[in-house]
Amino acid sequence: MSLWFRLTHASSTQNITTVLQYPEHAQQIAKSTADHIAQIDNYYLPLVEKVLDGDPEITYDSPFWRVRAPLQNIDRIQAPTLVTGALNDIFQRDAPLIYEALKDRVDSRLMVFNGDHFGSFLQAIPGTEKTDPLLHLVLQWFDHYLKGMDTDLESIPPVTQYVKHYKWGTWQGFDVSTDWPHPAAMPERWYLHGDMSLTRQMPEQETPGHSMDTPLFLEYLYGKNDLGGLLRLKVTLQDGTQCSPSYVQWTLGTAGWFLPLPCFWNNARLERDALNYETSPMTEDYYINGSLQADLWITSTVTEAALSVRIDEVSPGGQVNPITNGLQLASMRRVDPTRSRYLQGEMIQPFHPFTQEVEEFLQPGVPTLVQVEIFPTAALIRQGHKLRVSISPSNQAQGGVNLPRRERARGGVTTILNSPQYPSSVILPVVPVAELD
Question: Residues 266, 405: contact at Cβ < 8 Å?
Fold first, then answer.
């Protein structure tokens, strides 16, 4: 949010270059700028305070969010639509959902490439349309619908996705399919065991759970700058996630471009103190494509907790290659089965209503199931590598908690259970490797 604030407010309240470019409109621009600056006190600062104080209108799903939700009015879109996204975009979750809502009504395609939000912008540099497969398809699409050209539009697959760890190089690493979710996907469940292994077999005997302490909460400083014309927000992360793939993702990808660090692409340091459950080395390539879900049985010493779940590939040399992740607040764990996604009868994408009516705080010491939505991805766990599920009590690069919930979570110890009665697990959408092009 600190980066987002700077970007949005610099473009609305710092308009000197616009005045120099259009001096004949200087008076109108100055008035609009003054109106935007006035909104800092009238709207934005009160909004930030509502977020921090846990105001119900902002804390829960409400009309405030419904007005701003693209899926709420997706049926009003009648135009042919090309939906693009990236595996590490801030809209990683959203692009497939938008495509899914459009595909049966309008001509639409889904294209998911490698990288992050900022990286997708760079792919639009002139000249790359001859080498980059997705931009080439973008031109093919708009030449047809905007210029009326015959571009063999039918040759564009319904879904084109980059698959992590598949291939490298121009036009490599992409898979195409006739739909999203992938029509060949099947659910496979992996269980977490007390010896930190990850297997297809449910635990058969009682073993101790593993615990993790709630870390320090993130720090923040907000207000107007010294000249009073710009809203600023400084966030200081306290759980180590400033050196993580999530930090790259939620800074729009800019961190990875301007200050590249090994920990942005290798989770070994980040997960050093996490609860890491691993399979044996894969005997063959293992292809996952779609949404994932973690079903975690927990106990807590307090009434609130957060669960961060990361999915990784671990190389024989110990490099931890990040694939995707999810984050869930325990008090908002309620699931609406009618709006959740199922695959062959197995829930694989839980829908959490996030309304005030479904909020339910933990009872200390009572085993509780928390179903964590893990953002969709497409990746190979390569032969000889391991699949890892890493669990930690926060991911502040992706999200923090408001002040009332801090008091409920403060000093808490969360325990992950892994017994026959409380079998924690993850469920993955697995596609036969033969489906890769």
Answer: no
Tokens 């009868």 sit on residue: 345
Give the closest residue to 372 by CA, choosing from 333, 321, 315: 333
Is the distance from CB of 129 to CB of 137 less than 8 angstroms? no
Q: What is the mean pLDDT of each run of 10 residues along the chain (437 residues)?
A: 77 85 94 91 93 96 93 94 93 96 96 84 54 74 96 92 83 86 97 98 94 97 87 92 95 85 96 98 98 98 98 98 98 98 97 97 98 98 98 96 97 98 98 92
Specify the pLDDT at position 136: 78
For residue 258, is it within any domain? no
pLDDT of residue 169: 58
Statement to judge: residues 78 and 207 lie in one domain: no
Whether this model's pTM surpasses 0.90: yes
- Specify if 303 maps to a domain: yes
CB 276 within 8 A of CB 388: yes
Judge whether 259 lies within some domain: no
Judge whether 290 lies within some domain: yes
For the chain, the first-to-last Cα distance in angstroms comes to: 39
Residue 309 sits in the same domain as residue 335: yes
**Looking at the structure, do residues 42 and 89 belong to the same domain, yes or no?**
no
Residues 190, 170, single domain; the answer is no
* Domains in the chain, number: 3
Sort 309 into a burial class: Cβ within 10 Å, 0-12 / 13-18 / 19+.
Answer: buried
Residue 300 shares a structural domain with residue 351:
yes
User: What does the buried/exposed string (b/e) look like for 87-123 if buried means 16 or more CB atoms within 10 Å of the residue's CB?
Assistant: bbbbbbbbbbbbbbbbbeeebbbbbbbbbbbbbbeeb
**Pair 194, 331 in one domain:** yes
Shared domain check, 166 and 25: no
> Tell me, what CATH number does 95's domain have?
3.40.50.1820
For the stretch 159-179, pLDDT in tens is 999 999 998 755 578 899 999
Q: How confident is the model over 416-428, as pLDDT tens digits?
A: 999 999 999 999 9
Name every residue whose Cβ is closer than 8 Å to that of residue 39 and which is 6 or more positions away in sequence.
none
Task: Say if residue 44 is in the same domain as residue 74.
Answer: no
Surface-to-core class of residue 282, CB atoms within 10 Å of its CB (0-12 exposed, 13-18 middle, 19+ buried): middle
Q: How far is CA 100 from the centre of its chain?
A: 17
In whole numbers, what is the pLDDT of the chain averaged over residues?
93
Contact of 191 with 201, CB cutoff 8 Å: yes
In angstroms, the CA 321 to CA 309 distance is: 14
d(CA 36, CA 42): 10
